[in-house]
Amino acid sequence: MSKPASLYSVRVTPVESTASFTAAACPVCGQTEVTPTYSVKGVDSVIVVCGKCGLGRFEPLPSVEQVRGFYPDEYYGSTGRKFEGLIESLVRVVAARQARFLSRGLPDGARVLDVGCGRGVMLRAFADRGFEVHGTEVSEAAAQGADPRATLHFTSRLGDANLPSESFDQI
Fold it and tell me: Angle between the 85-102 and 121-128 helix axes, to the nearest 10 degrees?
């Protein structure tokens, strides 16, 4: 995929045919029936929705290099701040609300993993709630400015992060 003039200018359009088809098993529920919904200019894969749980994903999955191309270093801003002023504050307020919702029922000090943590907005929100936070990310540039309370694991595949089995209370 070539680099767009603006990081937000990649054209996403509804697909013409929305007939369900069989695809690789959904990573959440195992369902193989999906419905195509969108195409992204310059990407051979289409965005599909799982017929059982509603997860949206690319089918087939793009390569690691293609995914990196979706998020160039400039996408993340500098030192953990992507937006200016009010917008950045609103992003952090929304993250705090999401963390509050996602952490209901977790014990104090629970271990939380954010896969694809980017600049660490959710990591900060969970850390502020007293959780031990870990994040995985492909790009070290993306995680510049991430909360120092977070343990970061840089890898292109979650399985390569060598995280102990069943070591997190929430992912």
Answer: 60
The segments of the chain whose pLDDT lies below 50 read 1, 4-7
69 Rama class: left (phi>0) / alpha (psi -120 to 50) / beta = alpha
- Kindly compute the dihedral angle of the four CA atoms of residues 130, 135, 41, 61, in this order, to the nearest 10 degrees: -120
Whether pTM exceeds 0.85? no
End-to-end Cα separation, the chain, in angstroms: 30
d(CA 32, CA 143): 34
Helices and strands in the chain: count of H runs, count of E runs: 3, 8
* Rounded Cα–Cα distance for residues 129 and 96 (Å): 9
Nearest to 122 by CA among 106, 140, 138, 136: 136
In angstroms, the CA 113 to CA 168 distance is 7
Rounded CA-CA distance 103/111 in Å is 10
